[in-house]
Every structure is written in C-alpha cells, then in structure tokens.
Write a structure and sequence with these properties.
Blueprint lengths: L1 E5 L8 H11 L3 E4 L6 H9 L3 H4 L2 E3 L13 E4 L1 H5 L1 H15 L3 E6 L2 H7 L5 E4 L15 H7 L7 E3 L7 H8 L3 E4 L1 H4 L4 H14 L6
Parallel strand pairs: 1-2, 1-8, 2-3, 3-4, 4-5, 5-6, 6-7, 7-8
Helix pairs in contact: 1-10
Length: 208
Amino acid sequence: MKLIVITPSKNIENEHYILGKMIDMGLPALHIRKPKLSSENLKSYINQFTKAQQKKIVIHTHHNLLWNFNLKGIHVSKRHRRRKFWFALSKAKLRLRRGNFLIGTACKSLSSLDETYPNFDYVMISPVFTNPHGHRPSFNPTTLKRLIPTYPGKVIARGGATLDSIQKAKELGFAGIAFQRYIWDNPEPLVTFQNILNKFHELAIPVE
C-alpha cells in the first residue's frame, strides 16, 4: 500500500533532517506542500535534500522545477485541472523532456473522483477519517467499501489519518494513505513515523 507523508504547513525546527531521515527510513513519497514559497525559495528548499532523497519528492507548486530536479512527480490542484489546454500542453512538454514521473491530484467528492481517475497516476480523496483534531469524514464507509475497489491502484485516503487508519484504509480498498497532522502535531515526528512503519509491518502490508 502506498505511504505518503505531506510536509508541515509551517516550517519546523530541523525540518530537512527529519524529512530526509524519513526517506532514508523507507518513506517512498514525500509531498512538499509549501504554498507560500516562491519558486526560488522552493528550489532552495529542495536543494537541501540529497539527490537520492529528491527522487522520492512530489511537489505541489512550481511544477516547472521538475526541469531542475529528478523528482518523483507533481501534484496538480483543482485550479490547474480547470485549465485543461494549459495542463495538457504542460504535461506533454514535461513528459517529452523528463520521461516518466508521477502526476497526481486530489478531490473531495466521488463524482470528482470519477472524472479525474483516468487522467492521473493517483487521486487523493479527503476527508476520509475521524480524529481528535476535528476531522469528520465526508464519505460513508459502506459506500467507500463498495466503490473504491472499482478504481484500482490509484485512490489515496487522506484527512484525519492516524495509526488505526492504516487497517481501515486497507479494508476499504484504498491503494494508499497520506499522513500530515498526525505526524507534525506530535513532538517526536520521527518516532511517530517509525510507529507507522511498524504498523504496516504488523499488518503485513507492504509499503509502496
């Protein structure tokens, strides 16, 4: 099952060390979501990772930086999807120059999932889980269990994920799970991430 960690919205102490360590521990996909960073600042941010670590990175903004780095891929917003011609042209140019890389997106409704699924390598849907931070799921579990398997291999559960959510995501048929606040609200994010890896191992779920 795919495992994604999304960066904290605000910078934290020793952030690059922590994120780099997660990748070295086995994190397959680190999503850099820093909407307030300029293109140059995001470039500097990425440069603080090793070239090997950069191969695990997906960027949410300034997709043109894919020309500068050998990244795992890009995450496309709803705003980008609406500009269909621009998006198709940009994707074609990047594919021609860079070859294979992931292109993903996110949505908050099953109708949007149906629309986006054929055109992306993964689609995050949210919020899926309930947790103490106030997340309330937008989807009925019975409906998810019936529908998610009809979109094989691509749908990622996001929103309210905790340690217990890993088994739930698997049972509902999700291809992966994304963590953010559960890790960054913890004073020991590396310990929390190790607990997530341990849970995958305990449940005999391979990390992809």
